[in-house]
Specification:
The protein has helices at about 75-85, 100-110, 130-135, 150-160, 170-185, 190-205, 255-265, 310-320; strands at about 70-75, 95-100, 115-120, 140-145, 165, 215-220, 225-230, 235-240, 240-245, 250-255, 270-275, 275-280, 285-290, 295-300, 305. It is an alpha/beta fold. It has two domains: about 55-205, Response regulator (Rossmann fold, 3-Layer(aba) Sandwich); about 210-320, LytTr DNA-binding domain (OB fold (Dihydrolipoamide Acetyltransferase, E2P), Beta Barrel).
Length: about 325
């Protein structure tokens, strides 16, 4: 299992001289969208097409089917153990490994190209369906979704003939799902699987999946804890990490700024600089500087300077708040 990452230093926010004319603002919708479809996360296509399933190719020496190569993805250790205990007795399935979050799942899927993924739907930061989007429908292996009771998800899976397992997993239901997976790996064309995945992504998005991250999972060396998104005042880029500032403290999360911005509520969080995203609820004032830039003062007193490249976001914020 891959490590969640190592700690990196958090630098202080950049400041600068404040010009005249502070303007206090109230929170509200602020980011212009191209159209209603922008409410949905895109289904990224991949340059790597799905390879024919290796599981049912014959071994060159024995002429027997090769085992199904499976990956288990769930943020809960007990849930991963439960799936592993069901899979291990099967002679025709080999477990490649486990992933503890969406980012790790994407990395392992792209690196190992499993034939089958047991994919938890409700994971913090990157859900199972966001993993599908990130990998790309064309490159996503055959997937059995694992979920706690979620009627939106269940309806979507059933409507598009995708298999799922409901927690806690019953052994009979697991055996049914595995038999369907074997049949699909033998018979179903890649185009059919692609269309099934696209259908469930569209339908689940229609059900309101895209409200934005509500809580961050923070993994430190000796513990795992949570930070509510509403408490985060501003976010700073730290290479492959981001630092979540909730007043005097900073919490590191392994995620790029671009990926995080796509997962945040656009009516709450605003990109103002290539290195900063701010929570509009925590902006106390802003002062105009030169060339369309501003000096923001956050609720904890931290000054942040906006950049010209994100001036449209500031203008939309000011228009929305009057």
């Amino acid at each position: 299992m891959q490590s969640a990452g190592h700690a990196v230093p958090v630098r202080e926010a950049a400041g600068g001289p404040c010009g005249p004319g502070p303007k206090r603002i109230a929170p509200g919708p602020h980011r212009a969208r191209a159209g209603p479809d922008d409410a949905y996360l895109p289904v990224y296509s991949s340059t790597r097409a799905r390879a024919p399933p290796r599981s049912y190719r014959s071994d060159a020496t024995t002429h027997r089917p090769m085992p199904i190569r499976a990956l288990i993805v769930d943020d809960e250790p007990l849930a991963r153990t439960g799936v592993r205990q069901l899979v291990e007795p099967l002679d025709d399935v080999t477990i490649l490994g486990e992933a503890t979050d969406g980012d790790e799942a994407v990395r392992q899927i792209e690196a190992q190209a499993p034939d089958l993924v047991f994919l938890d739907v409700q994971m913090p930061e990157m859900s199972g369906l966001e993993v599908v989007r990130e990998v790309g429908v064309e490159a996503m292996p055959l997937t059995i979704f694992v979920t706690a009771y979620d009627q939106y998800a269940l309806d979507a899976f059933e409507a598009h003939a995708l298999d799922y397992l409901l927690k806690p997993i019953e052994e009979d239901r697991f055996e049914e799902a595995m038999e369907r997976a074997r049949q699909q790996l033998r018979q179903v064309e890649a185009d059919t699987l692609n269309e099934q995945l696209r259908g469930v992504l569209r339908e689940y998005a229609d059900a309101g999946e895209t409200g934005g991250i509500e809580r961050f999972t923070i993994r430190s060396r000796d513990r795992i804890y949570f930070v509510d998104a509403e408490d985060v005042q501003w976010i700073e880029s730290e290479g492959d990490y981001v630092a979540l500032h909730d007043g005097d403290d900073a919490h590191l999360v392994r995620k790029t700024m671009k990926k995080l911005e796509e997962q945040l509520d656009p009516d709450q969080f605003l990109r103002v600089h290539r290195s900063y995203i701010v929570n509009v609820e925590h902006i106390d004032e802003l002062r105009p500087l030169d060339h369309g830039t501003y000096q923001l003062r956050m609720a904890n007193g931290t000054p942040l300077k906006t950049s010209r490249g994100y001036s449209d976001n500031i203008d939309a914020l000011l228009d929305a708040t009057g």
